[in-house]
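Propose amino acids for all 362 sites.
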């Protein structure tokens, strides 16, 4: 098996060299990692440009429960501006988006073998595995906008709390070594690994445990609940750890914190495949529903102040995005503005938040 894997990887590398001769120098020249990048991939905000070559026909067909890794080659530019190619492995990841009726190009997990890590480039410095959110559908430009909006949501949550996953936008050129698909360049984004995120906040994960939301850190949870309401996201569960990671520090008496991820089913993104759960009683994902527990007037006042204080940074994040087109920018800002109208109106706040908040017995 080891010999077979080596042959596959070496074959992939040779195929990449052959294909490179047919790729225009312009594509290679545009591959870049911004100069002055800090140690972590996720401490920067400038989009990076890379190229991935693989048998994407075989990759996209391998979407079952026992899917495996496929050999691939990743090309980037080093700090000395030299193009460099390294062998990696890629695997289809995700649940809903790996369904080929939903996405013809599923999300990717990149595995970077130790021999491929490069001290010259922080892209490989600490990352063994990276999650890549892809464009989902190759022939629909709207899906690029959905990717950009989900990326901006990750960035937005970073404004409100350190207990969040970071993300880095990437412009990726995909080369299908099977020859069945044309070369395409699409936006996607990398998500900070769980290990790197936990090390940054100095906590450990609490997997496979059932904790009701009101037993988590309530300062963090108040922000969590309001943020999910702001973006119109109901596709999460703290108790079931659905699109939520629970983490705690070394003190076993401290309440754990809830950290959200996967925002593509939010109303702010408004992807065509996203539909609310029938039992929630909302017809569309753009219809907001507050799913947090009830809080005291002082707690509500505190969290509203947090969101008002970050309003300009939040709107600027979307407004100055070079990748978001004018139509989607207008929709996003209008959706965010409607949230602020709700939380800053006593009448609307009572009808939309306080009326729908959950009691502890629920």
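Proposal:
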């Amino acid at each position: 098996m080891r010999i077979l894997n080596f042959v596959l990887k070496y074959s992939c590398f040779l195929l990449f060299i052959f294909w490179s001769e047919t790729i225009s120098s312009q594509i290679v020249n545009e591959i870049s990692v911004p100069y002055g990048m800090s140690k972590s991939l996720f401490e920067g905000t400038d989009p990076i440009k890379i190229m991935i070559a693989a048998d994407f026909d075989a990759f996209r067909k391998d979407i079952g429960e026992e899917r495996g890794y496929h050999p691939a080659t990743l090309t980037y530019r080093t700090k000395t501006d030299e193009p460099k190619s390294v062998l990696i492995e890629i695997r289809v990841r995700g649940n809903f988006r790996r369904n080929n009726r939903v996405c013809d190009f599923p999300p990717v997990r990149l595995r970077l073998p130790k021999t491929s890590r490069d001290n010259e480039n922080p892209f490989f410095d600490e990352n063994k595995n990276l999650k890549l959110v892809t464009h989902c559908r190759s022939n629909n430009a709207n899906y690029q906008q959905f990717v950009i909006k989900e990326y901006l949501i990750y960035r937005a949550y970073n404004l409100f709390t350190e207990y969040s996953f970071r993300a880095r936008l990437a412009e990726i050129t995909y080369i299908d070594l099977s020859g069945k698909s044309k070369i395409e360049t699409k936006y996607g984004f990398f998500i900070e690994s769980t290990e790197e995120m936990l090390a940054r906040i100095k906590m450990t994960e609490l997997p496979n445990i059932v904790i009701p939301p009101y037993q988590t850190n309530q300062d963090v949870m108040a922000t969590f609940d309001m943020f999910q309401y702001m973006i119109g996201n109901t596709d999460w569960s703290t108790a079931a750890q659905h699109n939520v990671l629970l983490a705690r520090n070394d003190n076993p008496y401290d309440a754990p914190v809830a950290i959200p991820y996967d925002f593509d089913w939010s109303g702010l993104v408004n992807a065509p495949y996203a539909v609310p759960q029938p039992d929630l009683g909302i017809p569309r994902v753009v219809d907001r529903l507050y799913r947090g527990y009830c809080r005291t007037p002082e707690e509500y006042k505190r969290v509203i102040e947090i969101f008002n204080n970050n309003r300009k940074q939040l709107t600027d994040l979307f407004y100055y995005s070079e990748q978001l087109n004018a139509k989607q920018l207008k929709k996003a800002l209008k959706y965010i503005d409607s949230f602020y109208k709700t939380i800053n109106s006593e009448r609307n706040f009572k009808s939309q938040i306080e009326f729908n908040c959950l009691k502890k017995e629920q």
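Strands lie at 48-54, 70-77, 83-92, 108-111, 129-133, 167-176, 184-191, 204-205, 244-248, 257-260. The chain has two domains: 2-196, 203-354.
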